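Saturday, quiet lab. Running sequence design on the structure tokens for the scaffold JK sent over.
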């Protein structure tokens, strides 16, 4: 019995140490909300439509966590259109307030990603001269706003040391009780704890090993998932071409330049002759003057003074830098999504008409595609492509089904994207 009690005291101590290790090992990678990570996600996904303290295309996001519940924000950010169709009053009110502008869906963002973004939003101080709602502060002092709080690494470190101190005190108490028990039973005092004795304990080694394996697995998964991804990629191009000017201000349709989007696999980078349809006459831009347009003329051999092409001129390709890349083992067809799926370019590429310099808005990863296929409802009404799905049409008419997702028509089958 005496040995059993002593052995139990030791095990309690080692279990306390193991619990501390399990609690502290993942703390840097799995902490609640990370404003630094949120800033990266914000820049990659949100800046084309939102500012923190001012209205842009969408509303200012100051205080958004105070106005709406987390679950509401998760649903709105992932797929606002689906949320609106559910009849949520607040979602519909925002949709109407902003002229029925469609917010880009972000089905690939996890709850943790959204928490990180909101943590970043809450960490941005209100600039002097503006109020918390993005208006002008006549006092020039800046509006007062209750900011959310995210624990810093220093705070986490202090808490870790505090917990370690508690474990040390408990270890001292347990060892004292152990020695008292030994003295009463006529046994020698226990040897003091050493680092060597701790690491030789079997329970400690097993638990620590499992904790290290779990941390390594999570870290590997998180980092491996981003290999080869170009989310936020925004390279300089050989010609400073502004989508904000052409697609935004002038309203040129995407498919006027990207002629393959509704015809085949690739949307196609526009050839120089498409540029020349306009720039034979428009020889000066509002931002760069003639400098950038002259690069087009140099490529095709066009003389802007005589408005003629040079005879015998060997044309040179414009070496545009590709932004959106998929691995070679992935098949993606633009025409399928544009014609049958009736998707807008912005749903995958972001608010392209607001971009001065184009960047990749989404990860384009497998999880992102799968989430979209699971949540996106296909338009069966008046769409001949889906006329073959007679069973689904009948179920919709009978009220047995409210809609059909891409997943329902085989959108998660491996061979659809990986032949």
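Result came back. Writing it out in full:
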């Amino acid at each position: 019995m005496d040995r059993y009690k002593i052995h139990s005291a030791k095990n309690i101590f080692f279990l306390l140490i193991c619990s501390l290790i399990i609690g502290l090992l993942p703390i840097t990678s799995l902490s609640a909300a990370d404003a630094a990570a949120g800033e990266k996600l914000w820049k990659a996904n949100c800046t084309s439509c939102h500012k923190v303290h001012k209205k842009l295309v969408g509303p200012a996001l100051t205080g958004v966590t105070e106005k709406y519940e987390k679950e509401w924000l998760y649903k709105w950010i992932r797929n606002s259109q689906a949320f609106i169709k559910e009849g949520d009053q607040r979602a519909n009110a925002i949709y109407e307030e902003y002229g029925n502008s469609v917010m880009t869906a972000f089905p690939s963002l996890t709850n943790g990603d959204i928490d990180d973004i909101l943590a970043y939003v809450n960490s941005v101080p209100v600039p002097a001269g503006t109020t918390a709602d993005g208006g002008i502060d006549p006092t020039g002092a800046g509006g007062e706003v209750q900011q959310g709080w995210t624990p810093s690494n220093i705070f986490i470190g202090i808490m870790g040391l505090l917990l370690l101190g508690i474990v040390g005190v408990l270890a001292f108490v347990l060892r004292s009780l152990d020695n008292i028990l030994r003295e009463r039973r006529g046994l020698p005092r226990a040897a003091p704890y050493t680092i060597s004795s701790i690491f030789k304990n079997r329970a400690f080694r097993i638990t620590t090993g499992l904790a290290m394996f779990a941390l390594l697995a999570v870290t590997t998964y998180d980092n491996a998932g981003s290999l080869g991804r170009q989310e936020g990629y925004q390279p300089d191009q050989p010609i400073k071409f502004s989508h904000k000017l052409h697609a935004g201000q002038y309203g040129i349709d995407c498919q006027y330049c990207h002629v393959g989007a509704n015809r085949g696999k690739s949307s196609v980078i526009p050839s120089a002759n498409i540029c020349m349809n306009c720039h034979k006459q428009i020889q000066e831009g509002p931002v760069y003057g003639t400098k950038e347009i002259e690069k087009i003329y140099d490529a095709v051999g066009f003389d802007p003074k005589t408005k003629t092409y040079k005879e015998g001129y060997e044309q040179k390709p414009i070496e545009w830098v590709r932004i959106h890349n998929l691995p070679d083992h992935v098949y993606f067809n633009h025409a399928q999504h544009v014609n049958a799926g009736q998707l807008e370019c912005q749903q995958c590429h972001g608010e392209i008409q607001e971009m001065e310099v184009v960047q990749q808005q989404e990860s384009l990863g497998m999880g992102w595609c799968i989430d979209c296929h699971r949540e996106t409802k296909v338009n069966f009404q008046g769409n001949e492509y889906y006329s073959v799905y007679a069973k689904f049409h009948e179920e919709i008419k009978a009220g047995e089904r409210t809609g059909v997702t891409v997943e329902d028509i085989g959108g998660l089958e491996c061979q659809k994207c990986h032949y």
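Notes for JK: The radius of gyration is 30 Å. The chain has five domains: 2-29+153-224, 35-123, 233-269+331-360, 270-319, 377-419. Ask whether to fix the surface positions before the next round.
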